[in-house]
Amino acid sequence: MALYAELHRHLGGSVVPRILWRYFHRSDAELAQRFPEYNSFEDFYTRPRNTLDEYLELHTLVESVQTSETLPYFIYRLIRGAYIFENLAYLELRYTPYLRTPEHLSQSQRIDLMREIVEIVGKASQLQDCPTVASQILCMHSRLPYEVNRAIIDLAVEKREYVCAIDIAGGDAHYRDRLDDIIQLYEYARSRGLNTTGHLYETPDGCYPELLPYLMRIGHGIQIPLLHPELLPEVARRGQCLEVCPTTYLKTGTLTDLHQLKVVFDRCFEAGVDVAICTDNAGLHNVRLPFEYENLLTLDVIGFEELQACQEASFRHAFAWPYRDRPASLLNGLLKTETSPALAASS
């Protein structure tokens, strides 16, 4: 029975090392020669980096092979693994469609091809044997031109059957010089009725209070409780949820120890701010969502009641979950209904 919701997972970082390495050796001679042995590749792919920018460079390795031809291959394995090994009932996949189009084409040609990418991802995510509800979040990018980012918003509006929200990615330290443009893009997205999230307050260099009013959820957001707890009452008033991805902060050098997240959770719970626990890049981390839960519990960062509250928040803040209740509630109701006659007969 699938029980969990994943609100923050990148398509580029979701491919587990073994599947990516096998693809190289079956289909890409250059990359296969670069990584002849699996163990050395896994070590390269999953080891911690010193900064967020260094960490994000790994996405380019995967983006280069996630083309219109290969995306169904990767997504089938992604959804199958999420359903079987992670018990995911709901999954939001985020990515920048422009970065899955051929680099040699003109900007206008690449913009036109983004529609095909979204349709391929949408159709490939619908597996009969793995009934996880999947939707897409399209990421604007801090290093893409304004025209491309606006086209991403227009595509999200056009493809609502596949797309549930928009995001901004590319390293939060790079927003400063383009803040006016980013605000304008979010204003436009909200005017078109789109749901919004955004990579914000992930690192100390990514603290932009000007962007907060435009977001329905906050991608990461851990620096709010860590460095700017005075903002928490306003975050609670807006009903915003933090998408906290524990392992990411170790891999990017943002935190040195997961115990540091205890302050994040404690201050959020005290202020009435919802937190969803996510993986961000499950493949890059070699860590699946249930292990994120287990790590936080084992380290006493949260308790079981807090974990349950976070799991409930994930479904409550899911942009495209089609049901009123989370799966655990539905299962509990079903089991009670089925056992009641037997209990009555035995009494």
Automatic annotation (TrEMBL):
Its cofactor is Zn(2+). Residues 5-320 form the Adenosine deaminase domain. The keyword Hydrolase applies. Its EC number is 3.5.4.4. Pfam families: A_deaminase (PF00962). Signal peptide: none annotated. InterPro entries: A_deaminase_dom, Ado/ade_deaminase, Metal_Hydrolase. Keywords: Hydrolase, Metal-binding, Zinc. Belongs to the metallo-dependent hydrolases superfamily. Adenosine and AMP deaminases family. This is adenosine deaminase. It comes from Geitlerinema calcuttense NRMC-F 0142.
